From TrEMBL, chains B, E:
Name of this chain's protein: Amino acid ABC transporter ATP-binding protein
A Gene Ontology molecular function term of the record: ATP binding
Family (UniProt): Belongs to the ABC transporter superfamily.
Gene3D superfamilies, A to Z: P-loop containing nucleotide triphosphate hydrolases
UniProtKB/TrEMBL annotation, chain C:
Cellular component aspect of the GO annotation: ATP-binding cassette (ABC) transporter complex
Coiled-coil intervals, chain numbering: none
An individual GO BP term: amino acid transport
Source organism (scientific name): Thalassococcus profundi
Domain ABC transmembrane type-1: 92-392
UniProt keywords, alphabetically: Amino-acid transport, Cell membrane, Membrane, Transmembrane, Transmembrane helix, Transport
A Pfam cross-reference name: BPD_transp_1
InterPro entries according to UniProt: AA_ABC_transptr_permease_3TM, ArtM/GltK/GlnP/TcyL/YhdX-like, MetI-like, MetI-like_sf
Lineage: superkingdom: Bacteria
GO molecular function: transmembrane transporter activity
Cross-referenced NCBIfam families: HEQRo_perm_3TM (TIGR01726)
Protein name: ABC transporter permease subunit
From TrEMBL, chain D:
Protein name: Amino acid ABC transporter permease
Membrane topology category: Multi-pass membrane protein
GO biological process terms, semicolon-separated: amino acid transport
Localization: Cell inner membrane; Cell membrane
Organism whose genome encodes this protein: Thalassococcus profundi
Record-annotated ABC transmembrane type-1 domain positions: 223-418
Similarity section: Belongs to the binding-protein-dependent transport system permease family. HisMQ subfamily.
Principal subcellular localisation of the protein: membrane
GO terms, molecular function: transmembrane transporter activity
Keywords associated with the record: Cell membrane, Membrane, Transmembrane, Transmembrane helix, Transport
Keyword Transmembrane helix: yes
Length: 316, 255, 404, 430, 255
């Protein structure tokens, strides 16, 4: 089983992108950082007790699925859209959604475009290997517009092309657009258009068939979300682990019940996951939140209590 | 000299070829060859080009396989059994028209290679043997050179020494002098005469009729894949019987 | 002498499998075959086991499903509703297109550079040596990226042509070099244009006919007609004449900046241009070496013999040196063509949608059918290379010099 | 008979003429310039064109190069320093040289290890390339080099390479013990012995004994990765290439066809599809649960690729040997294995070396293709992390030029060597 | 035969070389060459290797340019004027040591190429001429073969026929037989003798002293780029004057 393999190896192999600032990118020292990276580290902390025991495997759109199904990686956390066919036909298991996204467009301000409906005849840079090119084709066909796609393998090159004016529009997930724009020299010269043309629930996934491992990934993610809901943060987790009067918090942190044991882990698993990089909200703020260069607002990704979609099933 | 040599021929059979036939594809190169070579005998094979002389000699050494008939070398039947082939090859030495020395090995290494790897002789011993035979062919001082540094005549003598190092009981020569300049031919023929005088069983394809007259016990004349005539050299040259032989001799001697 | 008999048929012993030349070959081949079969069986069973574990299967049904993505250069009709199969064919045609263009261009570059390397002019020689060495010793991928970068980073975007005082302007008001590609005027075929086209084709045939006639005349009567300018005249004049007589039936549609891009005219994609020229210049360096080697392989004696017969340098080249050099040049030339075709698979580096980009790229991604897609992809390249090798064999057999 | 000249026919020179110096137009710079630059009108035009092209190239390149900024934290800083002048931003090289050369994950305090391995590579390869210059004893170091290099680059316990080496030694001992009797026995005995040895030592707990800090294969990157892939794959592919070439020469049809199909298949498809196979498909063909490194899978694929090409080169070498060499060996009673090993291959390989070197150059260049399957070799580093980073987004020429230069130096060097060797072989009358 | 040939020499000058000098770089290959060849004369040029024989002959044909002095061929001054060079080349035929036939053309095509393209002879006519000369060199039956299919001697005869097809007034031969096997030498020499008997002006570099004695009007001996001695063959061979000549002759005849 994957859990045993990971434990025996002592390292979690986690598939990420080849580099998308805010979600997963190596810094100048080769250290991986980002929102997706945070999920990997949380799982590693939960399973192995060490958030650094992760081997990050950069994957492209093309290689990510084989990497996962061949067992080269244990977990794919690479803003991958949860779709029916990937779940059912490609035999993967999405363990949840860590970011609710949608495909958007970015254009230079100088073009004076304010709506995606005005894009007829445009040249559009797309990062291939994602659902984006399908959405794009659908959207333009639906609106009876024509366009010229410029398919590009990596975000870095798409960015280059876009900046050099080889395409008028860059389209990818809105979060990716924000991240890309943030890396520009003059982010203010570019606008993200208001239309969101697709639903892109992004989430980590594992291989189909190993449900125990899937449960661990799913509930680690849920623990991060629930932690935010209940106010468990990396700062107060230790303290709360001494015991609180909320049974749900106690069950999460392992002071009550035997949830960890049911997962095949120890009692502290969720606490470690939270300590690894903070709860969902902390990860968000640190990597892609409004105070980062990427500057995404919570939007749909707020807790259900705040009108968002984040809704962790109960820990009981 | 021919008389002296004659005496060493014994009754033992060295090579026995019975009713041997060979085809290249559908081309019938050798037809019903029957030949018995006695130990110590020196046979010269002559004949026009393409008559199958080389092929005959190469069959004895299993360089070519024959399709019909039997070849027995030194009591061993030449069959497709590898053991027999190996046995025969180590009994039979062969000297080629183009020497076929190994250019990447020194003369000494050329001579010791087979003794070491085939006969499993210790290297030192093999080298001693090799030097012995190199002295015999009168080029011990070239032992550390490479074949490319020797003249054609010297190379051919090395080739002879290389064969001798395997201490074969039978030597085959396929036009050993025809790729040589006239001056060098003599060197090589001298070496061969010397060998002959020591009683080595020899089969030699050559057009050197002088050599044949001086050394051979028997001259075999081939044409169109058959042995047309064989006889003692004196008889053969002075009194050929067959028309074909007469024609051939007139050409070759006139030349 | 003795009673003749074949070697006695020995009864078969097991040791004969190794010791007998007749059987040994069978033994070895059998072992090799078994090993290969075992290897395949092993790989196959792994595949089956892995696929079963992952709940997948091998199926080519995805080829019939609609592809749902768009391709920016399609030589045949294609929409996002077409099937994956059609998308693959679009990719195949794009591969063939870029390979063809690159082969032609590389040959021209290579021949010029190769001949220039033998020029008596020292400077030209050295310059060409510099070109050849620079391109042969740097990976083609780097050249593709460099040339693509020139395309995108150096050439102006269409927006630069906009405004009162644009940063860039069109060449002759008709041709625009942009980082999205080259915009050219497109012909509009008015009534009567068919005649012009036919006349044009006829005049091409005419050129060949004229040259043929001139040679025949020389052979028959010894009269040597000039070749150069009459050919040119036959090539151009009739078409021009008909064109104007019919009142200019063919007009040009000029590309014009409208909206985001130039509209009208034809566009040659930037990625196509980058890949095409990168492959052409890179392979041109190799071809230059072949050409040089080929010409040098014709011994000096041939030229001297021809010269001493009184032939002029140009004729020596045409009648004596080239026919011989071509035999040396063409086989490696063909394998260079093969290399171009194979290297064109690097199209993904510049986003050109060749077959690796469609079948081996987006289709593979969207359907997840990695094994099937890559298998088909390899099959395609294999077919091309087998076809080219076959061609080469035919050529080699036809051109082999007759020897004794 | 006409007498006019019959008298003059007899002629004897009484004094021999000395060498005279040629007329001025035949020597010196004038003649050279006339001959080489201005032979006739078309040539003179060509010269002028060439000078113009050269001028354009230099006029573009020199200011850019000479004005270059070598010290700045980012491209924006560069632009500020340059202030509108033409000039390169070479600061990216000084800032990121380590990533370009070693990838972004190789620990920087360990850079000395691959560097040392690289330097030693020259020591190891010199006696192979220049057999006449260096003593044959140095070949011992060449044989040890793979193990040293492995130890230096990957680290870990020194016992791993030592045991690996000893396994080879054990295999060789068994081989040489039996080879005089039977090649097959020696060969397979040797292999078995080596594997038994490795299996036994594999059971020993050697973790951490005399260890250098281990570095995972995944962490290799940059130009180092190109070099590793190039050298490893070429050296591995030579034995396979020999086997394939012999197989293709074989007169046993099945073996021949197996080799032909393999070779033609590999040569018929682009390397990049093979890399896709390594990256995307190969995992399905391995036993469930095995988990190869990507780098290992890539090495397997590139090695297969190189073997096919090297096999063709060696086949050429084999074909160039005269038939007489085979017959000479056979007539001495050497068996197939012996005559191949002792007579045919040493000669065939020698003829093939220039061809092999050319394949090696091509292969080394092709290692850049791994960037397409998201490995961070030199090109991958440039296209990925460096150009994508906020600081260096836009410094194309400096980075690509640097990559081109590195490859040029290495490949040009090797191809000059191969040409030299070809000339040597031509004049070698041995 | 030499006597008979002698008679055809006329007073007309075919080639006149005056004070000709040539350098390769700084190496002085030909020094002050003065030579007048009369129409119908047959000159053999001999001399040690490297003495400049080939260079001299090639200068006459403008295959090499000379740097000083004058060469007049058949009244045309050899200058850098292309017209003159063309004129001279079509007057002068040349036969090379290595034949230099065009391997991609049949024998007949080899022979008709220049007449068609240079002389603008109609093809049919050119072929008739070619067959005529091929008959003369006794190989008309090979006309449709390719050079690679002929023996060396046959190839050289084709080379001669090819030159003759241009109906040159002067023939140059540069060691035409030295790349041939002994049997073939005779074939070629016979052809040349025949040519000589027809009164063709010939300059021939050769070491075939038999040929020189039989055919030449004059033997020229060169050494170190100079004409050292010249004389009628009889005188030249029996009574050489210069030391250098004596030495050379002793070597070459002793051989
Ligand atoms: N490998 C082969 N395949 C087909 N035919 C062959 C082969 N080798 C030789 N032959 C033919 O067999 C005949 C006999 O050849 P062989 O070499 O034995 O003649 P030979 O008497 O030695 O002639 P030579 O004096 O020219 O060496 C010739 O007609 C030759 O063409
Ligand atoms: N292209 C050249 N460049 C420089 N030196 C040359 C060239 N061709 C010939 N030489 C030199 O000029 C000298 C005369 O050469 P030439 O070929 O005329 O001699 P030769 O008398 O014909 O000798 P051989 O009998 O060997 O043919 C020789 O020393 C030769 O080395
Ligand atoms: Mg023979
Ligand atoms: Mg000469």
């Amino acid at each position: 089983a994957t859990l045993d393999d990971v434990k025996a190896r002592g390292v979690l192999n986690c598939g990420v992108t080849t580099g998308l600032v805010g979600f997963a990118a190596p810094d100048a020292n080769g250290e991986w950082n980002g929102f997706d990276v945070g999920v990997c580290r949380a799982v590693a902390a939960a399973v192995l007790g060490d958030p650094t025991a992760v081997e990050f495997v950069p994957t492209t759109g093309k290689t990510r699925f084989t990497a996962l199904s061949s067992g080269e990686i244990d977990l794919l956390a690479r803003n991958t859209t949860w779709t029916f066919s990937r779940d059912v036909d490609l035999k993967f298991e999405f363990v949840g959604v860590n970011y609710y996204d949608g495909q958007g467009f970015m254009v230079p301000k100088a073009l004076g475009v304010s709506s995606a409906k005005e894009l007829s005849g445009a040249t559009v840079c797309i990062q291939t290997g994602t659902t984006t090119e399908l959405n794009l084709a659908d959207y333009f066909r639906k609106n009876n517009m024509d366009y010229q796609p410029v398919p590009i393998e990596t975000n870095a090159e798409a960015q280059q092309q876009y900046l050099a004016g080889a395409c008028d529009v860059y389209t990818t997930d809105a979060s990716g657009l924000a991240a890309t724009r943030a890396a520009f020299e003059n982010p203010g010269d570019h606008v993200v258009l208001p239309e969101i043309i697709s639903k892109e629930p992004l989430g980590p996934l594992v291989r189909h068939g190993d449900n125990d491992w899937g449960d661990i990934a799913r509930w680690t993610l849920n623990a991060l979300i629930a932690a935010e809901e209940y106010g468990i943060t990396s700062a107060n987790a230790e303290e709360m682990a001494q015991g609180t009067d909320s049974p749900e918090i106690n069950r999460i942190l392992g002071t009550e019940g035997n949830l960890g044991e049911m997962l095949g882990l120890d009692a502290d698993w969720a606490k470690r996951a939270i300590l690894a990089g903070g709860n969902y909200g902390e990860l968000f703020e640190k990597n892609i939140g409004e105070n980062t260069p990427i500057g995404l607002s919570r939007g749909l990704n707020a807790q259900w209590t705040d009108g968002g979609l984040l809704y962790s099933p109960p820990f009981r | 000299m021919a008389e002296a040599a004659q005496m060493q021929v014994s009754d033992e059979v060295a090579v026995q070829i019975e009713n041997m036939n060979k085809w290249y594809g559908t081309f019938h190169v050798l037809r019903d060859i029957d030949l018995t070579v006695y130990r110590g005998e020196r046979i010269v094979i002559a004949g026009p080009s393409g008559s199958g002389k080389s092929t005959l000699i190469r069959c004895i050494n299993a360089l070519e396989e024959h399709q019909k008939g039997r070849i027995t070398v030194d009591g061993t039947l030449l069959s497709s059994d590898l053991k027999n082939i190996d046995k025969i090859r180590s009994e039979v030495g062969m000297v080629f028209q183009h020497f076929n020395l190994f250019p990447h090995l020194t003369i000494l290494e050329n001579c010791t290679l087979a003794p070491i790897w085939v006969r499993k002789t210790p290297k030192r011993e093999a080298e001693e043997t090799a030097m012995h035979f190199l002295e015999k062919v009168k080029i011990p001082e070239q032992a550390d050179k490479y074949p490319g540094q020797l003249s054609g005549g010297q190379q051919q003598r090395v080739a002879i020494a290389r064969s001798l190092c395997m201490r074969p009981r039978i030597m085959l020569f396929d036009e050993p002098t025809s790729a040589l300049d006239p001056e060098m031919i003599k060197e090589v023929l001298d070496t061969m005469v010397e060998l002959a005088e020591e009683g080595m069983t020899m089969l030699c394809v050559t057009h050197e009729m002088g050599f044949a007259q001086a050394v051979a016990n028997r001259v075999i004349f081939m044409d169109a894949g058959q042995i047309v005539e064989q006889n003692e050299p004196k008889e053969f040259f002075n009194n050929p019987k067959h028309e074909r032989t007469k024609l051939f001799l007139s050409q070759i001697l006139g030349h | 002498m003795t009673t003749l008999s074949d070697p006695p048929r020995e009864s078969f012993r097991l040791s004969m499998l190794i010791n007998d030349t007749r059987y040994r070959a069978y033994t070895f081949q059998f072992i090799a075959l078994m090993l290969v079969l075992a290897l395949f069986a092993y790989l196959g069973s792994n595949l089956v086991a892995n696929l079963r574990a992952a709940g997948l299967n091998i199926s080519y049904e995805f080829l019939g499903e609609s592809s749902n993505y768009d391709i920016n250069q399609t030589l045949i009709d294609y929409t996002s509703q077409s099937s994956h199969l059609r998308a693959s064919i679009v990719g195949v045609l794009n591969t063939l297109l870029v390979a063809f263009l690159a082969c032609v261009t590389a040959t021209i570059i290579g021949v010029i550079a190769g001949v220039a390397r033998l020029s008596p002019n020292w400077l030209v020689r050295k310059l060409m040596a510099g070109y050849v060495e620079a391109f042969r010793n740097v990976p083609v991928l780097i050249w593709i990226i460099i040339i693509f970068t020139i395309m995108t980073a150096v050439l102006p975007a269409p927006s630069a042509f906009r405004g009162e005082d644009p940063d860039a302007s069109m060449l002759f008001g008709a041709v625009a070099f942009t980082n999205r590609g080259l915009y050219l005027p497109a012909p509009i075929w008015g009534p009567g244009s068919l005649v012009v086209v036919l006349v044009f084709i006829a005049s091409i045939v005419g050129v060949f006919a004229y040259r043929r006639y001139a040679t025949k005349l020389l052979y028959d009567t010894g009269k040597l007609l000039p070749m150069g300018w009459p050919s040119l005249a036959i090539f151009i004049l009739p078409t021009l004449l008909v064109y104007f007589l019919l009142g200019r039936p063919i007009t040009l549609e000029y590309p014009e900046l409208a909206g985001f891009n130039f509209q009208g005219g034809t566009q040659i994609l930037g990625s196509l241009i980058a890949l095409w020229w990168a492959l052409a210049i890179y392979t041109g360096a190799f071809i230059a070496e072949n050409v040089r080697a080929g010409i040098q392989a014709v011994s000096k004696g041939q030229t001297e013999a021809a010269a001493s017969l009184g032939l002029r340098p140009k004729r020596i080249m045409n009648l004596v040196v080239l026919p011989q050099a071509l035999r040396v040049i063409i086989p490696p030339l063909i394998s260079n063509y093969l290399n171009i075709t194979k290297n064109s698979s690097l199209a993904i580096a510049v986003g050109y949608m060749d077959v690796t980009g469609t079948l081996g790229g987006i289709t593979l991604n969207q359907t997840g059918r990695a094994i099937e897609a890559i298998l088909l992809l390899m099959l395609f390249y294999l077919l091309i290379s087998l076809a080219i090798s076959a061609l080469m064999n035919v050529y080699n057999n036809a051109m082999r010099l007759k020897e004794r | 008979m006409s007498d006019t000249h019959q008298q003059s026919i007899g002629y004897v020179r009484d004094s021999m003429l000395p060498q005279a110096t040629p007329p001025a137009s035949e020597t010196g710079a004038v003649k050279w310039v006339r001959q080489n630059l201005f032979l006739n009108i078309p040539n003179s035009i060509l010269t002028l064109v060439a000078i113009f092209v050269l001028y354009k190239l230099l006029a573009g390149f020199l200011p850019w190069f000479l004005n270059g900024v070598w010290d700045a934290p980012s491209i924006r800083a560069c632009r500020e320093v340059l202030d509108g002048d033409a000039g390169g931003c070479f600061a990216v090289l000084t800032e990121r040289w380590n990533q370009l050369l070693f990838g972004f994950k190789y620990p920087s305090e360990l850079y000395w290890r691959p560097t040392l391995a690289f330097v030693l590579l020259f020591v190891a390869i010199a006696p192979v390339l220049f057999r006449k210059v260096f003593p044959a004893q140095m070949l011992i170091f060449t044989a040890l080099y793979p193990f040293i290099a492995y130890f230096l680059i990957w680290g870990g316990s020194i016992l791993i390479p030592i045991f690996a080496l000893l396994g080879f030694v054990a295999g060789y001992l068994v081989y040489s013990r039996f080879v005089t009797q039977s090649f097959a026995m020696g060969f397979f005995g040797g292999i078995v012995a080596a594997f038994v040895f490795w299996w036994i030592t594999g059971l020993l707990p050697i973790e951490g004994i005399l260890a250098l800090e281990p570095v995972a294969s995944r962490d290799m990157g940059g130009f180092m990765l190109n070099l590793i892939l190039g050298t490893v794959c070429v050296s591995l592919s030579i034995p396979f290439g020999i086997a394939l070439a012999l197989g293709r020469q074989s007169d046993m049809p099945i073996i021949k066809w197996i080799c032909v199909v393999f070779i033609e298949f590999i040569r018929g498809v682009p390397l990049i599809t093979l890399l896709f196979v390594a990256n995307v498909v190969l995992a399905y063909f391995l036993p469930p649960g095995t988990n190869f490194d990507l780098i290992l899978r890539v090495i397997i694929m590139i090695t297969m690729f190189a073997s096919a090409y090297i096999a063709e080169v060696i086949r050429g070498g084999l074909a160039a040997l005269p038939r007489g060499q085979y017959e000479g060996a056979e007539s001495l009673g050497l068996d197939y294995a012996q005559s191949m090993r002792l007579i045919i291959l040493p000669q065939a390989l020698k003829i093939s070396i220039p061809g092999i070197v050319n394949v090696a150059v091509g292969l080394f260049k092709d290692t850049t293709l791994v960037s397409v399957i998201s490995m961070f070799d030199l090109v991958g580093m440039i296209r990925g992390p460096i150009l994508a980073s906020t600081e260096w987004n836009g410094v194309y020429w400096e980075l690509l030029g640097f990559a081109a230069l590195l490859f040029f130096v290495v490949c040009y060097g090797i191809s000059q060597y191969s040409q030299w060797l070809e000339r040597q072989l031509q004049t070698d009358h041995r």
